[in-house]
Design goal:
globular
Length: 157
């Protein structure tokens, strides 16, 4: 996207990642492993930064070494730096996949290195609601993300 930003009329400094559950893990992995490609450069697009300018992880999974642990997996923990992009996290405490520990642990690790992070935790709402509206407040997350993006300068007010 960044390589074609001018062609697509988008700001190359306002490109982010968003993911749910296991996709939230991919958001975290992309946020901390942006500085080293896993393949040899093929063309000019491979010379452009792949660091997201912001990250949105909703009920991210597979970040802790085990359920109920406050230890991040080494592949994530050892790569969190102040260059990790600003991050928005949202989690329901009654998530039956037990991802609350993943969110809490990632949140704490980001705070520790002074990465701007916004964390929303709700008592109820479960797992895997995505864009589906429910009676629970967590499903208002699109509006929360919109406000957060304005706050960090990714959108206009």
């Amino acid at each position: 996207m960044r390589f074609r930003a001018a062609e697509w009329h988008i700001d190359p400094h306002k490109i982010g990642v968003l993911g749910f559950s296991a996709g939230g893990h991919l958001v975290a992995a992309t946020s901390v492993h942006f500085d080293k490609r896993l393949y040899a450069d093929v063309d000019a697009a491979d010379k452009v930064s792949c660091r997201p300018d912001f990250a949105v992880a909703l009920y991210p999974g597979h970040l802790s070494v085990k359920a109920g642990s406050l230890d991040l997996t080494p592949d994530i923990a050892s790569h969190i730096t102040p260059q990790t992009p600003p991050t928005f996290l949202l989690q329901n405490e009654n998530d039956n996949v037990d991802t609350i520990w993943d969110s809490l642990t990632y949140y704490a690790a980001l705070i520790k290195v002074h990465v701007p992070v916004e964390f929303h935790s709700y008592a109820e709402g479960g797992h895997a609601f995505g864009l589906r509206r429910t009676k629970y407040p967590a499903t208002a997350w699109p509006q929360l993300v919109e406000i957060w993006l304005q706050t960090i300068g990714m959108t206009s007010n």
